[in-house]
User: What shape does this take?
Amino acid sequence: MSNAGSTAVRQNIGPVARGPLDFPDSPLSRSARQPLMLGLFLNLQDIHFSDHPTTNSWTYDYNAALVQKADALGFDIAFSRTQWLPKGGYDGEASLDSFVALGAMAATTKNILLISTLHVLYGPWHPLHIAKIGATFDHISKGRWGINIVTGHRAIEHEMFGWNRIDHDRRYEMTAELFEVLQRLWTDTENYSHEGRLNPWKVVNGYITPKPNYGRPILVTATGSEAGIDFAAGHSDLLFITSPGGAHIDSALETLPAHIAAIKARARARGREVKTIINPVVVSRDTETEAHAYARAIAAGVPAPTHTSFGHRGYDSDAQAWKGRNDSKHKQGLGLGGNIEIIGTPEQVVEQLAALKAAGIDGVQFNFYDFAPDFDHFAETTLPLLKQAGLRL
Assistant: This one.
């Protein structure tokens, strides 16, 4: 059953529904005007993919301090992964929930966008819960909060919640229904009812207030599959992509332009704009020799993969974005933990970021191996050069 609401609302749902990019004064539109958006891809879990020493911590205080520094420096975005794994499934000590942690950071920051990862099909979440919590975070952050939409690719995570893993493409069909209902709850000015076609829930006279500031919260999708890209083209503002070529920068630069062009064309066919973001790991020192020595030291500490090593390779996964990545035409990546590896002096880092921009990337979510000191080095040496190069306003 469905309560259609007013004509104005009826025209404002589905793939053409208004989102934050449709409001010139939204925080997302402000960030999107940067030539290259900058962000942090936080580690809210205790990751040990190399034995090389770091100061890293999964704790809220450590990561909140990084985000506050990024906010002060004018960075645009922060977010982190969330995983649901059994005992022994994490690399180390603990893992915070991104949905809660990034939302909590809204009260201690001013301008940076805060994106909370949420496995939207686990539980399952009821759309009224997501709509109400989302609108609350939206108001605390004044429109700076959003959801990184994850459908769940590991069987073991679905099973933890009492499910068998749902077929890959069907997950995106279920998620599309969920976000069409969320859009109605975030915008309708009357009660709204919906009988789930694919999802095991229904809404009867649902209503939430306050409404989000800019149509709905910011929506991000991390995907590389056809079904995922189709979903993102119709619903998301930012698409967190994977380099089809592999981690080596030359492979990425060769394969990204066609991949990005296809993504943006698919969104334009639906009358929408989608921004692409990617997460490089930056390994930089003042000299090229020092930078490559640091990268080799990290790589030398990477242990042989096990089911509990970073990436959790022993768990069955149907993720498609990382399949077929191939560095065979170029030097191999070193396995430093990023989607793309950027290694070199500050000047060389800027050159590689400029090349990513030329390939079609709209924003980068930085990983650093030793997050706090490496971020300090980037801020002091590289950020001013990005401004000089015209990559930052």
Observations:
- Residues 13 and 51 are 49 Å apart (CA to CA).
